[in-house]
Design goal:
Elements (H helix, E strand, L loop, with lengths): L1 E8 L8 H5 L5 H9 L1 E3 L36 H8 L11 H8 L6 E13 L2 E6 L5 H14 L5 E7 L2 E6 L10 H4 L14 H16 L2 H9 L6 E9 L11 E4 L2 H10 L3 E3 L12 E5 L4 H6 L2 H24 L3 E9 L4 E7 H4 L16
Parallel strand pairs: 1-10, 1-11, 8-9, 8-10
Antiparallel strand pairs: 2-12, 3-4, 3-6, 3-7, 5-6, 11-12
Length: 368
């Protein structure tokens, strides 16, 4: 029998807009999956004495471990994937960079992601926007300039992928960073590195901005009408993983590269996201990670968010509901990630017939 684990970030909208944006959507299957399921919290899965998993209260959030469960209110997709694949944290960051670096064929070492971004001063905020249309030559030239500037500071910048840049270090800095996905479209000043060495890395951040702001390649980018690369976002620090990632699935499927990186590190087959969900033979434990709502939210396109969610209802939620109800799926787990909350529910075939558990409109979950 099949077991499906479905992860959806950015489904829960801010409470002040959720009702208006969700009005008129037909989400019967998704709302029944959320309403009929049994709400749970992810249990701590690390042995006593080992480093805590990302998102674990022992990793730096408010302690609430008397029940043996984790407070997941602040879990990001990055944190959740670390939990799913058994990646321990030595600090509160999700150590994405070494997993990503291995995927991009970089050598072993200590890494930070150093992704190219555009900072825009708007009123009293410094907004962060993603940079697109970056050529490999642009990435290489800018990294060369950064390496020349920081040559005496034990730093090396590399860009094996035009939009995934890295900073290699002799050791990890004692800082806490925010994933790029959580900062896009927001004010960076509240999200800069914190921790023992924060002041030093704020200085590095400023030096990077000054160097890139005046880089000659940005004049040509501006002439082409694309955002200039005037900063880097440093995040996800980590060194090489000791041991292998947990192999709890037969396959992973997503529309986002990050789950593919984890699948590659764990040696699990990965498949690109399909338009429609359908059963696959010999695929009894399947992880599905859908990020189709994220790009729409980052761009502020709520019509696109509605359209993407309605397509998901028709092509994934409804077929999964029917497969679960007919017994073709033994168990379905949903992890729904919002900016300020998370809901984890588990369903078996019997739960689909628990009609006394009333489904409620999706917008209601945003009020939690």
């Amino acid at each position: 029998m099949k077991n499906i684990h479905l992860v959806i970030p950015d489904l829960f909208l801010p409470g002040d807009i959720a009702a208006e944006v969700c009005a008129g959507l037909n989400l019967a299957a998704l709302e029944k999956l959320l309403g009929r399921g049994v709400a749970t919290a992810p249990a701590r899965s690390t042995p006593v004495g080992s480093p805590p998993l990302c998102g674990d209260p022992a990793a730096g959030s408010d302690p609430s471990t008397s029940s043996g469960r984790t407070d997941v209110s602040g879990l990001t997709l990055e944190n959740l994937l670390c939990e799913i694949f058994g990646v321990p944290c030595t600090q509160t960051d999700a150590p994405i960079a070494p997993i990503s670096a291995a995927y991009d064929k970089l050598d072993k070492g200590c890494w930070l992601r150093a992704d190219p971004v555009h900072l825009r001063l708007q009123r009293d905020q410094m907004l962060l926007l993603p940079c697109t249309e970056i050529s490999p030559d642009e990435a290489a030239q800018m990294c060369a300039s950064l390496n020349e500037h920081f040559a005496e500071q034990g730093m090396e910048f590399l860009a094996p992928h035009p939009q995934r840049w890295y900073l290699q270090l002799d050791r990890l800095p004692r800082i806490h960073t925010q994933p790029l996905s959580q900062v896009i479209g927001g004010d960076v000043r509240g999200a800069l590195p914190r921790g023992e060495e924060a002041a030093r890395w704020h200085q590095v951040f400023n030096e990077i901005q000054m160097l890139l702001f005046s880089h000659p390649l940005n004049a040509s980018r501006e002439a082409r009408g694309v955002l200039t690369i005037n900063s880097l976002w440093l995040w996800g620090g980590g060194c090489d993983m000791n041991g292998t990632l947990q192999k709890n699935y037969d396959s992973v499927s997503s529309d986002e590269v990050l789950p593919e990186m984890f699948a590659a590190a764990a040696g699990i087959p990965f498949a690109a996201w399909l338009k429609n969900w359908h059963e696959a033979a010999n695929n009894h434990r399947q992880l599905l990670v859908w990020t189709g709502l994220r790009a729409a939210l980052h761009s502020g396109d709520l019509d696109a968010w509605r359209s993407a969610l309605q397509d998901f209802e028709n092509n994934y939620a409804e077929p999964l509901w029917q497969a679960l109800r007919s017994g073709k799926i033994a168990r379905l787990q949903l992890d729904i990630l919002g900016r300020n909350n998370m809901r984890r529910v588990q369903l078996t075939r019997g739960d689909t017939w628990a009609v006394w558990r009333r489904a409620k409109p999706l917008a209601e979950y945003s009020k939690v």
